[in-house]
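Task: encode each sequence below as structure tokens.

Item 1
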Amino acid sequence: MHSKELFGHFNGLGVKGYVVVRLVKVLCDCDPAWSLELLQRAAPTVERLGVLFPREPHLRAVHAMPRLRRLHVWCRGALHAAPYELGALPPGHSGLRWLSVRDLPRATLQALLQAHGGTLEELELWVGTPGKQEWPYNCSDLHSLLGRCGLRALRRLLLRRWTGCSHIDTACRGQLAAVRAALPGLQVLCDRCDQVPEEEP
């Protein structure tokens, strides 16, 4: 069901006849107030979520979802101008298992990873190989960044590259090796080198 159609079934403080467990491609920039209300009303039951271009209030709403297990977030614009650092998980939140992050500010990403470090098993980062451009188109210290996040449950890291994002073969191999050395036992892949298809939350 399309999210606009779904929202028509939200009345008062609850949902009439629906338990919402999955929302994908929730556009937060076209109508910020509407999308925020959708996230807030679906929050008690959502387990899988995809949000595009959130602002700080949207991230706060996502961070408070107690049953959320899988999250894809793609950022741009307003959040980069004023990065938002998430705090600890609220009581009753058992933590993410799968996370895909595209173009989130570094400070926000680090806080998000630290909040879910004890439960996160699979991580997809849209990030470039080392170079001189700004994050995330280049990243020269990914191993150090991840090493500070307490990713105790992480089993698999997939690095996704996209248009404008650096991907040089030798730099990619070096980046993957540095992450493996920093986080022993972790499976580390590159979507281009290993031909890994994209998946939804």
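Item 2
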Amino acid sequence: MGEISTFGLELFSSSQIFYKGRARFINLPATDGGHTFLPHHENVIIALVPGTTKIVTETGEEITAVTGSGFAEMINNRVQVFVHSAEHPGEIDINRAKEALERAEEQLRQKQSIAEYHRSKMELARAMSRLSEAGKRK
């Protein structure tokens, strides 16, 4: 049986290196839905939105992360992901996430500038992703 094909993967948030190593697969929340990178994917740069990122490591371990907005690039069988935030679902404070969801919903109900509206929509999407993944761990 042949060796399993992998690619280099680095996932950076604004405060940490969330993952660095070899991977078989990564699925990211992109602006057009989800985007999956497999080994030897064509070179590309994509925009990311808040949501759930799934990684399968070289050893077959599955890692789930709740990630914020950012971008990812695949160049020469190496993926680099740069996001505002990346959290393991088990690390999410559910009460704090619910409060953030309520704040974002209230901000969307109020009259806002276009920039504020888009920022509130992103905060709402992030809060919903965090609550969804944290709820799966209970």
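Check on item 2: The longest helix spans residues 114-136. The radius of gyration is 16 Å.
End of task.
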